[in-house]
Design goal:
Helices cover about 70% and strands about 0% of the residues. The chain is mostly helical. Among the domains are: about 1-205, Serine Threonine Protein Phosphatase 5, Tetratricopeptide repeat (Alpha Horseshoe); about 435-525, Serine Threonine Protein Phosphatase 5, Tetratricopeptide repeat.
């Protein structure tokens, strides 16, 4: 979701006081706007906007929410002397990166405020709070001026939203949301916003609690269900996540973005076929947004339909604004290229693009993702190199397995020269980790003692045997390799006792083990 929609997702606007039929209808429209039901709000506001300046203002905000900036500008310009619509124009200027013009316009609004007026302060403050570019501290000051005249749930909610944009303002934001909870008309929205605060703090249990309370306080509020869907996904409860996004769709305007969010949730819930079907359904209706091809392509990748996935990812790159391409687009595309032998050589360049685009301080998971992609494609030498990059760059997220995988991948690529130092370094850094000794034994046996004569691998296999449980069924194949090597070295060295011992251990693991039988037979004639 772009900045406009992200900003509007936390909006809270004043509830008008009045009991006429028109006022009540306008109040309903504003409530729909708060709940991001922009099309439903527009249906009410459009016929009213010709004669009602506030209806015109909210109609303009609905157009901004739908990314129709030019349409919003035309609407606000109908009432150039009205405080609300002037503040609306300031929002347009913020979106057009004309911050000085926007702030100048808002200053004019607040400078004209008459005694005991408070709404102009809120209109001006809202323009900053729900846009990018202005100073949220100024918004807080204007909210405070409005609260010198009156206090209501909307003012507290908006003040909380402004504090959320200030570094370290989370505590003040929570305090204002708690005040807003004391007003019936903003109880549900206040709990939703408190849930967002907890969610941002990764306190998912508290977030879930607040979202649940928000939905109970106003069953018509769709926003908590959307947030609940995301929160439950984060804690791995995919079925509940799907249930909540479906409830959200029941209450929302079922906009294209809403349905796309549903398809996205299906993807996150690993219901890949359903996600593809939903996106294709929207495309068949004439709805087409580049993002849709990402969900389709990612889903097809998971279903191993690589040819179709490549086709849809190509559509994504062709149609999507380059600024909206995300690192995972390049990463997934690189993995897809590895499935096509004619294009596999291009994969590394796309992985590099993904890494360059990723702004994370610790890119260890990304490097590991690339290494695993090459490993899965059985391109062992390249996989080893990517694991080695994690080690060489001394990344903060280094794990013992990074050394291990690098060494093992070099082993499978038969590059024993590079395999040995990776595994030796692992054994030095993690001396109690058995696997490094086992694979050092494999490397030495393959590179320096193929004839089982000099025992170059013996010490490593013995170190490994001293650290593992030799009755562990999961270690059977590894034990057979180690005992076979040790038995052969002992036999070739005329060490009858050790050759017998290791051969018997082999037969204990596998009574039909042919090498052990041959050694024991050969020992009978050994002097």
């Amino acid at each position: 979701m772009n900045n406009v929609k992200r900003i509007l997702s936390i909006v809270a606007l004043p509830v008008l006081i009045g009991f006429s039929a028109q006022s009540q209808t306008l109040e309903e429209a504003i409530q729909l706007y708060k709940y991001e039901r922009f099309e439903s709000a527009k249906n009410i506001l459009s016929p009213m906007a010709t004669s009602n300046v506030q209806a015109n203002y909210y109609l303009g905000l609905c157009e901004l929410a739908n990314e129709n900036v030019n349409g919003a500008k035309e609407i606000f310009q109908k009432y150039p002397d009205d405080a609300a619509n002037t503040a609306g124009m300031a929002r347009v200027f913020f979106l057009e990166n004309k911050t000085p013009e926007a702030m100048s316009m808002l200053s004019k609004v607040t400078n004209k405020v008459k005694k005991k007026e408070w709404l102009p302060y809120k209109y001006a403050a809202d323009a900053i709070t729900y846009s990018e570019g202005g100073d949220p501290n100024m918004a807080v000051e204007w909210y405070k001026k409005a609260m010198e005249i009156t206090k209501n749930g909307d003012l507290y909610t908006s003040t909380g939203d402004a504090y959320r944009k200030i570094q370290g303002g989370g505590g003040n934001a929570m305090t204002n949301y708690e005040y807003a909870e004391g007003y019936p008309e903003t109880q549900s929205l206040a709990n939703y916003k408190m849930g967002n605060l907890w969610y941002a703090a990764k306190n998912y249990d508290s977030a879930l609690s607040k979202y649940g309370r928000a939905s109970k306080l106003d069953e018509k509020n769709p926003l908590p269900y959307k947030a609940l869907a995301d929160a439950y996904y984060r804690v791995g409860k995919y079925k509940i996540s799907k249930e909540n996004i479906e409830k959200y769709l029941e209450l929302s305007d079922k906009s294209v973005d809403d349905q796309m969010q549903y398809a996205n949730t299906l993807y996150l819930a690993k219901e890949y076929s359903s996600a593809i079907a939903k996106m294709n359904e929207l495309i068949a209706k004439g709805v087409e947004k580049p993002y849709m091809y990402r969900v389709i392509g990612f889903s097809q990748f998971e279903l191993k339909d690589y040819t179709s996935a490549l086709t849809n990812m190509d559509k994504l790159f062709a149609k999507q604004d380059p600024k909206k391409i995300i690192p995972q687009d390049y990463m997934t595309y690189g993995k897809l290229l590895l499935t096509d032998s004619t294009k596999a050589s291009q994969a590394s360049s796309y992985f590099t693009k993904g890494l360059d685009l990723d702004t994370a301080k610790d890119k260890t998971p990304r490097y590991r993702e690339v290494a695993e992609a090459f490993k899965d494609a059985q391109k062992y030498a390249t996989a080893a190199e990517w694991y080695k990059k994690i080690v060489d760059q001394n990344m903060t997220g280094i794990e013992p397995l990074d050394y291990w995988w690098s060494g093992v991948m070099y082993f499978y690529a038969k590059d024993y020269t590079n395999a040995e130092p990776m595994l030796k370094t692992m054994s030095e850094k993690y001396p109690n980790e058995p696997s490094s000794y086992y694979w050092l034994g494999r490397v030495m046996a393959s590179s320096k003692d193929k004839e089982y004569k000099n025992g170059a691998a013996s010490s490593y296999f013995n170190q490994w045997l001293g650290l593992v449980k030799t009755d562990d069924p999961a270690k059977k194949n590894d034990l057979i390799k180690a005992y076979t090597y040790l038995a052969m070295v002992a036999y070739n060295g005329n060490n009858k006792a050790e050759a017998t011992d290791y051969s018997n251990k082999l037969l204990a693991l596998d009574p039909n083990e042919n090498t052990a039988k041959q050694i024991l037979k050969g020992l009978e004639s050994m002097k």
